[in-house]
Amino acid sequence: MSLEKFLSNAVSSWMSEEGPNSDIVLSSRVRLARNLTDFRFSTLYSSEEAREIVDRVKEKLTSYPKNLGELEFLPTSEIQPLQKRVLMEKHLISPNLAEETNYGAVLLSSEEDISIMVNEEDHIRIQCLYPGLQLKEALKKANQIDDWFESEFDFAFDEKHGYLTTCPTNVGTGLRASVMMHLPGLVLTQQLNRIIPAINQLGLVVRGIYGEGSEALGNIFQISNQTTLGKSEEDIVEDLLSVVKQIIEKEQSARDALVQTSNIQLEDRIFRSLGVLEHSRIIESKEAAKCLSDVRLGIDLGYIKVISKNILNELMILTQPGFLQQYSGGPLRPNERDIRRSSLIRERIKLDKDTCEEEK
């Protein structure tokens, strides 16, 4: 494996698989935050300490169990800024690690379902990703990886408070569980703004596609736990699962209502968006995300049968600014990105249509 392998494909291998409720839940993620007892937290440690943390993780990697998946060690000092942006757009590293220049690293599995960040906000952050609604499966894998790390390192832990982390909101289990959901039905029926406050009252938070501070492009929302202290990992995941299942039901009901009460308007919206994607010569990222969301809804409802959902998963990432520039071989001005984005979308949709026709 090499860095180029992780940059060349917009869709990670795990994203190509169908998961439970994958028409609404795009992915499930579990992240564990851990810190080593021998070092100060990232807000206070020196450059020498940061380098030593990276060196220790790399050294121990030789004993990493093969049954958990082979990992590629990539120091941030060897990753260019544009390449970091691509990895961030694929959710393989966080915006925080993307800003790290010399003293961080990321360990990636070949399937890209495991990402272990070193010297992000915490010394070690273990991330596991699964398609569809598979939070329990993601937690099980993350715990297996965590068990190995605990056999090799001493983590900062307090009997009363649990795992100690840089940000106080992560103290306790250090667990952030989240799901990425496509919720066009709730947005179009204007129900989501009423639901979000209720979700927040349950100790959960609704964010955009790239987490805190990001926009909900293409009606895609990330829902995660806010509380990590006072609950077990299993309880946190169960609570999130319970809410997510209710949101799935509400989204499905909203879609059914749209079909029953506004069928022709909905069909018109979907096919107008498909027309824009197939024929536009300039398209901004927000408009592209909106149209891709409409088309995905059209596929899920059976209006569109000649395009696969996988192509939309790919285009959601491929049309982001970093990936567009990486794909084009260098920096692009905003207008050039809009032109390249429209061209790329037209090409990929035509190719996918042709493939679907051949398979009939």
UniProtKB/TrEMBL annotation:
Its EC number is 2.7.14.1. Keywords: Kinase, Transferase. This is Protein arginine kinase. It is an enzyme of class 2 (transferase). The keyword Transferase applies. It comes from Rossellomorea vietnamensis.
